[in-house]
Amino acid sequence: xxxxxxxxxxxxxxxxxxxxxxxxxxxxxxxxxxxxxxxxxxxxxxxxxxxxxxxxxxxxxxxxxxxxxxxxxxxxxxxxxxxxxxxxxxxxxxxxxxxxxxxxxxxxxxxxxxxxxxxxxxxxxxxxxxxxxxxxxxxxxx
Length: 142
Ligand SMILES: [Cu+2]
Description:
This protein has one helix at 91-101; strands at residues 37-40, 43-45, 48-52, 56-61, 70-71, 111-115, 120-125, 135-141.
């Protein structure tokens, strides 16, 4: 279990959707919603989140629809670890799993987390709502 650090927000997108900065890894303490990025009906809030190397980002599906968190393999730093809900090792595997059996699905209230160990820009997408523009970015700073 990774202790979450203080996550700074840069850029104000998606006000009021649970992007409150969090100090400790205890959900619900001091108004901490326990996650960093919420998934609404057709998007991530905030759509851009800035964290530091070593931070763990927690996503939660706060909507009634099913979503995924799936990194674009070409949209993350070369040396970074790939991430996708469902734990798939690459984007092709994640997409195939979704297509065949809704692999990687995050239902209402489900969470996914990833610890970012390499600085850079990370673009990710919700596979079922990609055509609807459901994608977002995590910026990881040194
Ligand atoms: Cu979605």
